[in-house]
Design goal:
With about 180 residues, the protein is mainly alpha-helical. Strands 1-2-3 form a 3-stranded antiparallel sheet, with no helix packed on it. A hairpin with a 4-residue loop joins strand 1 and strand 2. Helix 3 packs antiparallel against helix 4 and helix 4 runs antiparallel to helix 5. The model has no long low-confidence stretch (mean pLDDT about 80).
């Protein structure tokens, strides 16, 4: 909503092509999809005049997303260290979202659309997007499994808190006893 975006093709019903949906104005009309190909539209004068984001804006957005990813992972870790199963499930979800933001950031800028031009060096890398989609599906499965375990635990114990295991307490007591002996 800041008024800057990258050049993308917005096609109107009459075939007119504009560089961005915020700039559907006559002075930014790149041509017509009926009359011109994508290479001509990209090389048109309105496309070259189109405002591109400055380096300061790109760095600020990247820094903001890095901070958001760190905040999500920190909150998720805090919730994960709690003893309530509901907090553990929410914490794993937050960590998953933070990792997804990091994966999106690893892809760099969007690059050029794959159907414009012959130079493949400027194309967008689809691998980080595929990783994020895979992570979303796996995260959804893990969260669904944890929710079923939490529901089963609630039915059996009528409590959301995870208790210490009796065997763990016995081993901890033996270790403490060994440390106390001279």
């Amino acid at each position: 909503m800041s008024g800057t975006c990258s050049c993308q093709f917005v096609v109107e019903a009459d075939g007119s092509v504009f560089p961005c949906d915020f700039y559907v104005l006559d002075r930014y009309r790149m041509g017509s999809i009926v009359d011109d190909g994508f290479a001509e539209l990209t090389a048109s004068e309105p496309a070259r005049r189109f405002p591109t984001p400055t380096l300061v804006v790109v760095v600020a957005v990247t820094l903001l997303l890095v901070l958001v990813a760190g905040f999500l992972c920190a909150c998720g870790t805090y919730l994960l260290l709690g003893r309530q199963l509901s907090r553990v499930v929410i914490g794993i979800g937050l960590i998953g979202h933070g990792v997804n933001v990091v994966l999106v950031l690893s892809g760099g800028d969007g690059g050029a659309p794959a159907f414009v031009g012959d130079d493949t060096a400027g194309f967008a890398d689809p691998l980080p997007q595929a990783f994020v989609l895979t992570a979303i599906v796996i995260g959804f499965g893990v969260i669904a499994f944890l929710l079923t375990l939490a529901y089963r635990s609630w039915l059996v114990t009528a409590d959301d808190e995870v208790e210490d295991d009796v065997e763990d307490r016995r081993i901890a007591a033996q270790a403490q006893h060994r440390e106390d002996e001279p």
